Fold:
Amino acid sequence: MMVRRATITGLGKYVPPKVLTNKDLEKMVDTSDEWITTRTGIKERHIADNDVPASELGLKAAREALQDSGLTAEELDLILVATVTPDMLFPATACIIQEKLGATKAAAFDLEAGCSGFIYGLSVAASFIESGMYENILVIGTEILSKITDWEDRSTCVLFGDGAGAAVLQPTEKGGLLAFDLGADGSGANTLYLPGGGSLNPADETTIKEKMHYLKMEGNQVFKFAVKRMGQASLDVLKKANLKPEDVDLLVPHQANTRIIDAAAKRLNLGEDKVFVNLPKYGNTSSASIPIALVEARENGLVNNGDIIVLVAFGAGLTWASTVIEWNEGEK
Ligand code: COA
Structure:
């Protein structure tokens, strides 16, 4: 019997034009280009204008992904948006994008798994396709982290950036998304979070005065979790796909910190040429980081039909997620 899997048939990305460099940040908080570069690997990040919501970035990435796949918006069965910075708490940002795309047949919902959100989204889409429920699914990661960043807190404001990436998934009988490893450790929920605006600390004078509408992070604890989980999740997913680290052509890790990426690469014994890094240009764009990196890796000739590609991420939750893909986007 033929195996029905999901495969990525189109990719797209969009980042807002405005760039904020480490030198710019030196004028805003007590930091230095040298500190940010050596501790994180980041040099600059893109920042959306005040009147731009996450749906707008996601829409642009989605249009590019659809064009790349050759599908029309009307052919989509489902739109799934991974984000921690939705336009509003509800309705889902996926519904806003659905309307703007004109994807009239598509169901739409958001998924929140921190920076692991895009891979969590791929796993949901793959399951819908493998089960035969849907044929054509659009997964989008879109973030405007600059709007939940405390620009007076040097320990977080140097790390994040804005952007969006998208992928179209369709059925295949050859290759595609071979396996997933997803996980969560809720005991780390209080190491990376946005306390205000939900039902626990709804918006009022106190929550606003105490800056509860900004992202909070215990950087050190998140760092330790990430170093441990990124390598392990990559090894675990390869095992599920009956593959070995030496079979990997390219690792596309969540772009948060080059020291975390280096640790994961070391666990897999992968040389620099097999690990894609674009963190210096964008900072951490949360659920958009993996699809943006995947687009750029393909532009650089590093993603070709038949390649074995591992995606791995960690994020708020705390969560982790990995997938291994035998790349097959068909002939274009
Ligand atoms: N510029 C200059 N100094 C800074 C700074 C900045 N932007 N931010 C923090 N510091 C200082 C701290 O105040 C501290 O000073 P002290 O020793 O006098 O107290 C010192 O630098 C070291 O801080 P520490 O937090 O121990 O540094 P670190 O090596 O752990 O690096 C992070 C900090 C945030 C870069 C690192 O912990 C990290 O990347 N964590 C993971 C974060 C992440 O990826 N989050 C997103 C998850 S999806």
